[in-house]
Design brief:
InterPro entries: UDP-Glc/GDP-Man, UDP-Glc/GDP-Man_DH_C, UDP-Glc/GDP-Man_DH_C_sf, UDP_ManNAc/GlcNAc_DH
Largest sheet: 5 strands, parallel
Organism: Clostridium sulfidigenes
CATH superfamily: NAD(P)-binding Rossmann-like Domain
Family: Belongs to the UDP-glucose/GDP-mannose dehydrogenase family.
Protein name: Nucleotide sugar dehydrogenase
Structural class: alpha/beta
GO molecular function: NAD binding; oxidoreductase activity, acting on the CH-CH group of donors, NAD or NADP as acceptor; oxidoreductase activity, acting on the CH-OH group of donors, NAD or NADP as acceptor
Length: about 140
């Protein structure tokens, strides 16, 4: 995807232990966030069902609203909440950093692609435009 890891801006969607449940005990998503931060990544974390205050108290993570997520280099869809299952891959496109296409980079196949990591595999992978996005799922 030709993205720099250090100082990249990554949105992590979902922090709870399982989908559509506010329980954050034993969540492994926090480990992902910690690892990203160790690499110098700027993480924006959001969850439609988790308690913002509990996440801050237990894990020291300041959650943001979905509306605050913009200009990201990558999205990690970590928990398959109903809100996210109702969306398509195209619904996430406006959240990415928009950059003008550099003709020289395009000629060298060095265009920075958007990165979407679908941990639970809930998105339709056949709807991904592989010319503009790197899509990865477990």
């Amino acid at each position: 995807a030709n993205k720099r890891v250090k100082n990249a801006k990554v949105a992590v969607l979902g922090l709870t232990f399982k989908e559509d449940c506010p329980d954050t005990r034993n969540t492994k998503v926090v480990d992902i966030i910690d690892e990203l931060k160790d690499y110098g990544v700027n993480v924006l974390a959001t969850d439609p069902v988790a308690c913002k205050e509990e996440i801050k108290h237990e894990y020291g993570i300041d959650m943001v609203s979905m509306e605050d997520i913009k200009d990201v280099d990558a999205i990690i869809l970590a928990v398959s909440h109903h809100n996210y299952r109702e969306m398509t891959i195209k619904d996430f496109t406006p959240l990415y950093r928009s950059e003008a296409l550099d003709e020289v980079a395009a000629a060298k196949d060095e265009v920075e692609k958007d990165v979407f990591i679908d941990v639970k595999g809930i998105m339709d992978r056949h709807s991904v435009d592989t010319d503009t996005m790197v899509y990865w799922r477990l």
